[in-house]
Write a structure and sequence with these properties.
CATH architecture of the largest domain: 2-Layer Sandwich
Distance between the termini: 47 Å
CATH class of the largest domain: Alpha Beta
CATH superfamily of the largest domain: Probable tRNA modification gtpase trme, domain 1
Low-confidence stretches: 275-280
Shape: globular
Largest sheet: 9 strands, mixed
Mean pLDDT: 94
CATH topology of the largest domain: Gyrase A, domain 2
Structural class: alpha+beta
Number of helices: 6
Number of domains: 2
Length: 280
């Protein structure tokens, strides 16, 4: 079993008799159907369907815990308070002790299973506090292998739809429950099949340039590097443009480094066939 301490992760506890209904009608995750001891990804959206905050959520006794980046915890709590109104819900920031993740054959007792990693065939669990040395680089490489992006590193808040970051594929987006903030836009994208940006694996024969480097095909942008670990990285790319480039044998470059771009196998997604008159 390998483990890593993530000091930049923070936790929020949501409790009270209305906690489940409050969250279920607000965020993208199916809160009512959330099993015990399982952490699922989720997001709070703008009314236009863009991601304001991304996080993980799991049950904690009669309440719930949200794990998010420490830099956005307080802002997320303020936003949740805006929606609380008269609901019997209590919000509390848990002590800033970070999160420890465990992966391999054995899960740590008392930890919750990360279902997003499970979708990618990786057994990983999470628990509050420091129970390992800071091995954030090892976790970063694992997260890249699983094609799991986070805001701030892979995309900017309010700059991505849930489909862009694969929430429709990793259990963080429900199409069976009622309304939540941004639901109408997200449902329309799902039913019309209009999602054209997706998380992809980017690989090279040499070390990749830094996050934020533009990826191009014949001088036209197709995406931007996000999280980087040596020769491997993640990027949210325009799959129509990458598909056209691949179909025409055009080189893909991250800066001036030749790269290969592939959609994560576990998603079942494929690049669309070349289309004439594709949107510029």
């Amino acid at each position: 079993m390998t483990k890593a301490y993530l000091p930049t992760r923070s936790l929020i506890r949501i409790s009270g008799k209305d906690a489940q209904d409050f969250l279920h009608s607000l965020i993208t995750t199916d809160v009512e159907g959330l099993p015990e001891n399982e952490a699922r990804p989720g997001a709070l959206l703008t009314p236009q369907g863009k991601i304001l905050f991304d996080f993980l959520i799991w049950r904690d006794g009669e309440g719930f815990v949200i794990e998010t980046d420490a830099g956005q915890r307080d802002t997320l709590m303020k936003r949740l308070m805006m929606y609380k109104l008269r609901a019997a819900v209590d919000l509390a920031a848990l002590p800033d002790s970070g999160v420890t993740v465990f992966w391999g054959d054995e899960a740590d007792q008392g930890a919750v299973v990360d279902s997003a990693f499970a979708k990618a065939g990786i057994s990983l669990s999470r628990t509050q506090g420091q129970h390992a040395d800071d091995q954030a680089e090892a976790y970063q490489a694992l997260r890249i292998a699983a094609a799991l992006v986070v805001s701030g590193e892979d995309y900017a808040p309010q700059d991505a739809f849930p489909h862009d970051i694969l929430l429709d594929k990793n259990g963080g987006l429900s199409f069976r429950k009622g309304c939540y903030v941004g639901q109408e836009v997200v449902s329309r994208m799902q039913h019309r099949g209009t999602a054209r940006r997706r998380v992809a694996h980017v690989t090279a024969q040499v070390a990749l340039p830094a996050a934020g480097t533009e990826i191009t095909a014949s001088g036209k942008p197709v995406g931007t590097l996000g999280s980087v670990s040596d020769k491997n990285a993640l990027a949210i790319v325009r799959i129509d443009r990458v598909g056209d480039a691949v179909a025409n044998g055009l080189p893909l470059l991250a800066g001036d480094v030749p790269v290969t771009i592939e959609l994560p196998a576990w998603t079942g997604l494929t690049f669309p066939a070349e289309t004439e008159g594709a949107e510029p």
